[in-house]
Design brief:
This protein is mainly α. It is globular, with a radius of gyration of 20 Å. The protein has 13 helices and three strands.
Length: 311
């Protein structure tokens, strides 16, 4: 069982606090190239720059910014690997899945499924309000985005999944000895990590419903499927397809996408609909394909610590 793989006599919760600090330090080290590049650009520009987050993200050409920013996630992912191996004495596989090896078909199915939903949703939105979008396609920058994004964006999304649905979910399971607490805590922390996104400033805190709801959905499919493969595929599709399809002046990343959204952002059905309608549909599809059952026990049940300690 996935959560139980992290519950060992030597794996105390305070080790996860230390491990989290080490992963954050690794991420900060990965931010050095971007910080140095920003500093160099600033010193060589007589006009100077504003150092708020939105302005800093626009200093460089979008593909270069994407590359420099996501480097930090590669360092953080390496941090997760070494923390799991040397601090917790676990294999990387144990924070990935309960199966004997990673199920790449699960990752692929989830990726294709959410890519399809994303493209259909955007197409419907475009035909509903075509005046809100302009054609943004530039061949060479777009091809570079495809190449860079296809490699780096899955690194970014995988890092988040390994931290939240893998490492921290097992950590909170060690603390609470049940399933509902890790599910809720990782969802809340995952959503809170997005509070400084420019979308929140534009749409208000109501968009946190979407972020926390997405974290909850990813946690549910992890617990029901006993591994993070489906979450890995979904998250990679969500960010990669989004980066390739549409950008805007108020999003976290400005990319050389196919379209640019020129509308004024507002929190409406697009915030609520995925959480209350689309995610339940995905859960239904996954449950039928992978024969999920015993939902209450897998999502809220206690963990038998005595049985684990005797293994």
């Amino acid at each position: 069982m996935f959560l139980e793989q992290g519950i060992k006599p030597h794996n105390k919760f305070w080790l996860y606090l230390i491990g989290s600090v080490l992963i954050i330090i690794a991420s900060f080290i990965g931010q050095i190239p971007f910080s140095v590049a920003v500093l160099y650009k600033t010193l060589n520009n007589k006009k100077g720059f504003s150092f708020d987050n939105a302005s800093v993200m626009k200093i460089f050409e979008p593909n270069l910014t994407l590359f420099l920013v996501i480097i930090s996630f590669a360092f953080a992912l390496a941090g997760v690997y070494y923390v799991v191996k040397y601090l917790h004495h676990q294999t990387f596989l144990s924070v990935t899945t309960s199966r004997s090896k990673v199920d790449w078909k699960r990752i692929g199915f989830s990726f294709v499924l959410w890519s399809f939903f994303s493209i259909v949703s955007f197409t419907a939105l475009y035909f509903k309000s075509p005046e809100n979008f302009i054609w943004n396609f530039k061949l060479i920058p777009f091809l570079i985005l495809v190449a860079v994004g296809s490699i780096l964006i899955p690194i970014q999304t995988s890092t988040e999944e390994y931290v939240f649905r893998g490492y921290l979910m097992q950590g909170f399971a060690n603390l609470a000895q049940n399933r509902w607490f890790p599910l809720l805590m990782t969802s809340l922390i995952f959503g809170s990590m997005h509070v400084f996104n420019p979308e929140v400033a534009k749409m208000g805190y109501v968009i946190m419903f979407y972020y926390i709801g997405t974290g909850l959905f990813l946690g549910v499919i992890t617990l029901m499927d006993e591994g993070i493969e489906l979450a890995l595929g979904f998250h990679a599709a969500n960010n990669l397809v989004g980066a390739l399809l549409v950008t805007s002046d108020w999003s976290v990343f400005q990319t050389h996408s196919l379209f640019k959204d020129m509308s004024e952002p507002s929190a409406g059905l697009d915030v609520i609909l995925p959480v209350v309608v689309i995610y339940p549909i995905l859960l239904f599809i996954f449950s039928k394909k992978y024969n999920w059952n015993n939902w209450k026990e897998k999502l809220t049940g206690k963990i038998n610590v005595v049985e684990i300690s005797n293994q």
